[in-house]
Design brief:
It contains 32 helices and 20 strands. The chain is of the alpha/beta class and 908 residues long. The strands form six sheets. Strands 7-6-5-17-18 form a five-stranded parallel sheet, with helices on both faces. A four-stranded mixed sheet has the order 2-1-3-4. One of its GO terms (molecular function) is RNA binding.
């Protein structure tokens, strides 16, 4: 193996130390940053491990774990949990501290207020378990990775507070070890430190952590990072004592949901998904799941909330799909609308109404907006050169034309874009164009179209944008994309197309045309609401009382921030315009993109067949929600997040809290006598809860999820330090302490049940059922109070999450890595006879279920023959069939089948 590192590289320290610790058989290669890296996927500063197979690892933590594995040390759940914590929690904060220290000259420990909290977490973990190292009694990959992150900013344990004694001892031991000393000398002392500073100076400042580290203005969400005041501790204890009476009463809106005077009325839309295909995970997180999470939060806050969505069904894409499948556009819409609805239902998306755009209301409202724009002089007519197929007797929309790309000469370029070079194309520029429908050769002819006069509307758009930006929450990418559109001045936008499938244009001379989908589709929000209630105008013509949130991926921004608002401003009918435009970046799949045709990635209709519950999918997608930059789905990371954050952190805490009530106190919440430490915990949880609210009110959904996990970490540490399972066996004072710890913990679990509801509604409902949380307590407040008082009886407590195994994940990775688009036999199809030696695709749940049933049936057959004392030859034949079925089942589950032999004939 060859390990390539750059002197001063930000992650070089940990990988070099790991190689030394594990005594792994690697050849260390020091390269200047300017040299070509081993993999095009990594920068020269990122370490890379080239395996003997030729594969390259370039994730620093993965390299460290691989080196330890090669050295004979197997990973544990605890080491995995520390690696995850280091990557997601520690690294960003250390990066900010280092940037401030090396670039701005600030002291590392003063540069990022978050660092103190993370150091305290390590201190508590070391002292709470009484172990010398992070993951047990011996040095592990977790110790190396965390030390490697901390050493550049600490360098000397003398800079650590005297209160962090366990951390000081651990850091001192690690720093003096031969492996760490060699790594530090070779990577950072002294020339490497200069290289590292040079590297940092060339980088943009670390995002959120850097903003907090270098800003002189304290942010509200930093409240949970700072030291607690006596006033906060006292207030938290007082709120706790008030109990459920301190909570607002849950409010149920009328049906249909309509704006209520004096309440906060929140209208939520997510970009209407195209009806012509199945949404993949990136589509789901970018639109409907993000909007659903926020809608659920709004309802828990007692805000009067309406969430609408539906399929976007008109346009070229639908006609093209209809041609491909040999169906009419209406049949395509009916088919895929049902598919979309089923997928969102499985993902627990809580639409108040999920509709579609192919309705009479759509025609009426779209044509009314058009007529108002026409009457006010905001529409233009112009001549456009367009391809016409004389055989089909129609002008061809861009996607109905194929030909040779004028840029790269790709022979199957579409009329709007080349799939090979990616460049946008004007259909008339194609070489040797062909009609996709009849393969005839189209000719260029002039045709009249209608345009929205955006330049004339710009004088209304700009002041509205300034007002919306100053009063609402627009994501940074939404603002940037909008500014880029209006920077050089807007151009007229064509709003008609020569198609059959669309909303008809109600104007003489244009009645053979339809509206362009991006003029028409956003009006679908209004028409879908009109299908929900005939009082739809109370939502959509009521900007004085309604706040509008639009959720979408970044490619949809200009249509929602420029074109649609211009249409409504020009129509001048008191329309509700967007106050908060929330756009995500893109979610990719592993190291590439989702592709239905190539069978790459998980699509909505496939997720439920993986055997992984919907709430786990929701959690993971929201955990890596691409809020500030593109992110990537990873099977390994999904397993890690499930096993560390859900199973070992959140689920472990809630299960222990409930089990202690059942096991030690007969299922009844015990009396609680709070100590000073307990009150500090209440205050800390209260601050995390307030930060959760501050983030969600700004629609920072991913960051708010961290607050939930932080509270459960506090809870696990609280239980670990106080050890109620030991105290319950002690004297009266110890038993009382065990009761207090258990009571506080189970109330923290009750709070988490409510906080987690927007993210994992089924898990939330399960916790509510297990702890018998009263319905009147299932509401979000800014205070942490005692909702399960002494005497409250809990129900049956059981684990909330299951561990994901590596072989299960590898089978799914293989299944969705390409090829799953091939048709699979229906569930009723018989399994091929064992003698045929079928190739079994791992991970197919239908096949696994069928084989499991056949194994059980064949097992019963064998037992019956033995009970009836059948002939030996007959029994052996049936046993052989059973063993072959078990082999096929193992293959289908992604396992390596052992050589199975009948009992009594085991190999020696």
């Amino acid at each position: 193996m060859r390990l390539q590192v750059a002197a001063g590289g930000p992650a070089a320290l940990k990988v070099v130390a790991a190689a030394e610790f594990a005594a792994a058989p690697v050849r260390l290669c020091w390269t200047p940053p300017a040299e070509q890296p081993l993999s095009p996927l990594c920068s020269p500063w990122v370490p890379a491990l080239q395996l003997d197979s030729g594969a390259v690892l370039f994730s620093p933590n993965a390299i460290c774990q691989y080196l330890f594995l090669a050295g004979g040390q197997e990973p544990t759940d605890l080491t995995n949990q520390w690696l995850e914590w280091e990557a997601t929690e520690l690294q960003p904060v250390v990066a900010a501290a280092l940037y401030a220290q090396l670039v701005h000259g600030k002291k590392g420990l003063e540069a990022a207020g978050q660092l103190g909290k993370l150091l305290a977490y390590i201190e508590q973990s070391l002292s709470g378990r009484g172990t010398a190292y992070l993951a047990g009694d011996t040095q592990s990959v977790a110790d190396v990775v965390v030390w490697g992150a901390l050493f550049p900013v600490l360098q000397d344990e003398a800079s650590l507070s005297n209160e962090l004694q366990a951390l000081r001892t651990w850091f001192h031991t690690m720093t003096l070890s031969e492996a760490c000393r060699k790594a530090a000398d070779s990577v950072l002392m002294p020339k490497g430190l200069l290289e590292f500073k040079s590297y940092l100076q060339k980088q943009p400042p670390p995002c959120l952590a850097m903003e907090r580290a270098t800003s002189n203005e304290p942010e509200e969400e930093e409240a949970s990072e700072r030291a607690l005041t006596e006033e906060e501790i006292t207030a938290a204890a007082d709120a706790w004592a008030r109990g459920a009476a301190a909570l607002p009463k849950p409010w149920q809106p009328q049906k249909p949901v309509l704006p209520v005077e004096g309440m906060r009325n929140v209208l939520i839309t997510s970009a209407l998904p195209y009806v012509n295909n199945v949404p993949h995970l990136g589509n789901i997180i970018g639109c409907v799941l993000s909007a659903d999470t926020f809608a659920r939060y709004c309802r828990l806050r007692n805000w009067n909330t309406l969430y609408v969505c539906g399929t976007d069904e008109y346009g070229t894409a639908t006609e093209t799909k209809a041609v491909e499948e040999g169906l009419t556009p209406r049949e395509i819409c009916d088919k895929y609308n049902a598919i979309h609805a089923d997928i969102y239902r499985w993902f627990h998306i809580s639409f108040d109404y999920f509709g579609r755009t192919t309705t009479p209301h759509q025609t009426t409202i779209a044509q009314d907006i058009f007529q108002r724009l026409l009457a006010r002089g905001f529409l233009l007519q112009d001549t456009v050169e367009q391809l016409q197929c004389e055989g089909c007797q129609r002008f061809l929309a861009d996607r109905f034309v194929e030909g040779i790309c004028p840029f790269c000469s790709y022979e199957e370029a579409r009329g709007d874009q080349c799939d090979k070079c990616g460049k946008l194309i004007n259909a008339v520029e194609l070489k040797r164009p062909q009609c996709k429908l009849c393969r005839g050769v189209p000719v260029v002819k002039p045709t009249q179209h209608l345009f929205l006069d955006l330049p004339k509307l710009e004088e209304q758009l700009e002041p509205w944008l300034e007002h919306s930006w100053s009063t609402g929450d627009w994501t940074a990418n939404a603002r940037y994309i909008t500014r880029s559109w209006i920077r050089d001045g807007l151009k007229p936008r064509c709003i008609t197309r020569d198609l059959k499938w669309g909303t008809p244009v109600p104007l003489d001379g244009f009645r053979d045309k339809v509206f362009y989908v991006w003029f028409d589709a956003p009006i679908g929000y209004l028409s879908i609401t009109a299908n929900y209630t005939d009082q739809w105008e109370r939502w959509w013509k009521n900007p004085q009382q309604v706040e509008l949130y639009n959720f979408m991926a970044k490619d949809n921004v200009p249509f929602h921030s420029v074109i649609f608002p211009c249409s409504l401003l020009g129509a001048d009918d008191n329309y509700t315009l967007v106050n908060h435009l929330i756009a995500t970046e893109y979610l990719n799949y592993e190291d590439g993109k989702f592709s239905k045709s190539r069978g790459v990635g998980v699509f909505g209709d496939m997720a439920k067949d993986t055997g992984i519950p919907a709430d786990i999918w929701r959690f993971y997608l929201l955990y890596l929600r691409p809020e500030g930059q593109d992110s990537a789905f990873s099977w390994s990371d999904l397993m890690l997040k499930n096993n560390s954050e859900l199973l070992n952190n959140l689920g472990n805490f809630i299960n222990r809290a409930g089990m202690f009530v059942c096991k030690f106190f007969g299922g009844v919440v015990p009396d609680m006598i709070l100590t000073a430490d307990d009150k500090r915990l209440l205050a800390r949880v209260t601050l995390e809860l307030r930060q959760y609210h501050q983030l969600l009110e700004k629609v920072r959904i991913r960051d708010a999820l961290r607050c939930i996990l932080s509270i459960s970490r506090h809870g696990n540490q609280y239980i670990q330090v106080n050890e109620p399972w030991k105290r319950i066996k002690g004297n009266e004072e110890d038993r009382q302490r065990a009761g207090t710890v258990t009571g506080v913990a189970v109330n923290m679990a009750s709070l988490l049940a409510v906080m987690v509801q927007p993210y994992m509604p089924s898990v939330s409902l399960a916790i509510q059922g297990q702890l018998c949380i009263p319905p009147e307590c299932f509401v979000l407040s800014h205070i942490f109070t005692c909702t399960l008082p002494p005497g409250h009886r809990v129900g049956t407590v059981s684990p909330l999450f299951q561990k994901l195994e590596n072989d299960q994940i590898e089978a799914l990775r293989k299944r969705f890595g390409g090829g799953q688009a091939k048709p699979t036999p229906p569930a009723s199809a018989p399994v091929p006879a064992p003698a045929s030696g079928p190739v079994v695709a791992p991970g197919d749940p239908q096949l696994i279920q069928e084989l499991t049933e056949q194994v059980a049936k064949q097992g019963n057959q064998v037992r019956q023959l033995k009970a009836n004392k059948a002939e030996k030859a007959e029994i052996d034949a049936e046993v052989a069939k059973l063993l072959e079925l078990k082999k096929q089942l193992a293959l289908a589950e992604g396992k390596s089948p052992e050589v199975l032999v009948p009992k009594g004939k085991r190999k020696k």
